Each structure stands twice: as C-alpha cells, then as structure tokens.
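Regression test attached.
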Amino acid sequence: MLPLLMAVYASPEERALIARLQRRDPQALAELYDQYGKMAYSLVLRVVRDNAIAEDLVQETFLRVWNRVHSIDAEKGSLGPWLLAIARNRAIDYLRSSAGRERKAVELDEADHASLYGEMEAGILISDQARRVKVAMEKLAPNYRTVMELAYFEGLSQTEMAVRMGQPLGTVKTWVRAALQSLRDELGVAVSS
Amino acid sequence: MSCEELREHYDLYSLGIAEEPERSEIRAHLDRGCEVCVPGVRRALETALLIGTGAPPAQPSSQLRRRILASVGVERRRLNWIAVWPMAAAIAVLSLLLLFVAQDRTRYVDEALRARPALGILFAPGTVEASFGRPQAQPPRGTVFVNPSQGVLLIASNLFPTPSGKIYEMWLIPKGAKPTPAGLFQSYRNGQALHVRPGAVDVASTAAVAVTVENLAGADQPTTTPLILAPLAGRTP
C-alpha cells in the first residue's frame, strides 16, 4: 500500500490549489491529477475491474471536482478525501447501474456534504492511521474482511451480501458488526465515537 | 432518534449499508449540521476512506491525464506530434468505422481490429443496431450498436463540438425506468463522434439510447432535450 499512499502528498499548498481550482485555473487541475490521479484510478479499478471503464470514471471524477469545487471551503480544505469519495461513488454507481441494481447506493451525496470531506485532516491519506487501517483489515478473519470489501468496493447492502455469500442475513449482519468492532479494537479507538 | 442512538450506525452509514430508519435519521442530523453526528460521521468516513487506499496500486494510461485536461481546455494550444498522433489515429479509426458501417461489415476487418473495444461490439454475436437522425434536416446522424455482453457503440456525424463548459453524455433508457448515464464524450471538429460504453447491457429491457448536452461533470439524469434518440424497441439480435 505504501507506494500507493506515497502517490499522494498532502502538501501545505493544498488550500492554494483549491483556491486556484475555484478561480478556474486549468493548470491546477493538472496538479490535482498528478497528486490524486493514480490513487483514484487504483480505487476505481479495484471496484469496476476494467481499465477502460476505470479511466472513463476517473475522468468523470475529475470533471465533477472541477465543476463542484466551490462547495469545498478553501480555508479548511483537503481535496483528496473528497475526490476519492466522488471516485468511489461514481464507481459504485456504475457497478449498480450496469447490474440493474438501484443507483445511488452510497449514502452521502458528496456535493451536499462536501464539507465532511473538505474538513478532514489534510494528511489523512498518508497518515499513520492509514497504515493502521490497512494492517487492521489484513488481520480481519476472512469472512469479516470479505463483508467489509463487499460493502466498500462493491457497494453491496447487507441483504445483497447475504445473497452473494449464500449466508443468512442475520449472519452477515453479525459479521459486519464483528468486523467493525475488530477494526475499532485494532485501531485502539472507537471508530465512531 | 437521538445522537446517542445513531452513534453505532455511523460506520454502517459511511460504508453505505445503514438501514432505515437510521439512514434517514443520520442524513437529517447531517443536514442540520448536528454538532455530534457531523464529527462522528466524519471520523467514520475517514476510516472508510482509508479502506479504499488499500486498493492494489494501478497505473492509468498516459492518455488519461491528457483526456482530462483537454476536457477543460488545457493543452489544446500545445499540440505537438506526440499529442496529435492519438487524435489522428482516432480520427482515422473513426473514418474507417464510418466507411465500414456505411458499406460492408466485413471488408475492413483486419484494419479495424485495432479499434477495440468498438469492434468487439460490432462483431459480437447478438449485437443489435438502431439508426437515428435520418428524417431531420441537419441532424446528428449515425448508428448505435448494442451488444448484450460487450456494451454500446455510438457512431455519429453532424454532431459538432459542444459549447465551452459543456459535454455530450450518452444515456441508456430502460423501458419504464429512468435513464442511466453511459459516459461522457466529445465530438471532433468535423462533427464526427465515436463513443463506447463497455459492459453488459440488457438489450431486451432497453428502450433507447440517447445523447444530451450536459455540464462538464455530467449529470445523473438528462437536463436537456436529447440531440440523439435511437429507439431499440423491437430490435432483436
């Protein structure tokens, strides 16, 4: 994961970058791509598993950021988390629409709640916490890790996971709760507290 | 519901798997800027986001950066041969395909094999096609090819570049349901366009393929009247 994480550097100039994007400076978009393009592509490719589709969705992601960057507060801003959230939402939406499933599975409309991402810690994507989450995920029991990945990378509801895994819904809910608890325990913090 | 009751659902919400009524309750708390739920959900989102950084590292093609920048007007004035080559190749392939469609599906097979995945759609068993624009005076004209497993290929002429800040968006229109986005694209200066939406398509339940003009980021639903509407009803492989 480290090379991927190192592709992103939460530079102190990020606020200036946001301001330049808000002033419609196209070169700022080039810099944004250089910082986050590979990470966004890696995430989207993991979801859709098709190079061409992944590139289309990453293009849509950057255009969406370009078009909606005014919803980020430049003074508090951290573009990376927001951009990756958009990338994931686009990829999950694609998966769901191509499979004939209901679209908009992702709870948060990243435009309506951009501040949730914009106010995240600037260095979150390269923080020690990122490494700890990776380690914690690797330590999860296989079925726990599977439900977390099905939720995050495929956008499956717990009911859909139960069908996919051929398990009772109650079992899947138990696994999800246990997986989240394991993550909390491994991270040494109450994730939701 | 109280913030305390919602707290244990923040993680599920951030993963997109919260159920009702907690999902709506959390959304309502966020909408009103709840000082407990906003930071709580933000922390849960951070963790969810970090799960995403565990995706295996992958390298996009070098063309992707150029595509993104070109779509907002960057580097158009800096074209050199390295930059021009892919565009020229694409135009050549487009011309080939237009000729190919107009005349004979089999004649240009060898050359056109380079035009994957467009050619994959053209030749896959089960592809259906529908023309559009013929009755109009100055229409975008062309054909869509829809294959159940390969995807949708749109080939058009008289579809001139959009105004600044706009882009074409293709839609699949299911029978009795809302259109689903099928990708953004631009046409060439000469009005020719080729757009591929790879992936499975349920041809039987698709009523039409359409194209609208949208803002650069695209739209979740069409916001303008379709310039292109190719009905698929009744088309069978």
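Expected vs. actual: identical. The CA atoms of residues 173 and 179 of chain B lie 4 Å apart.
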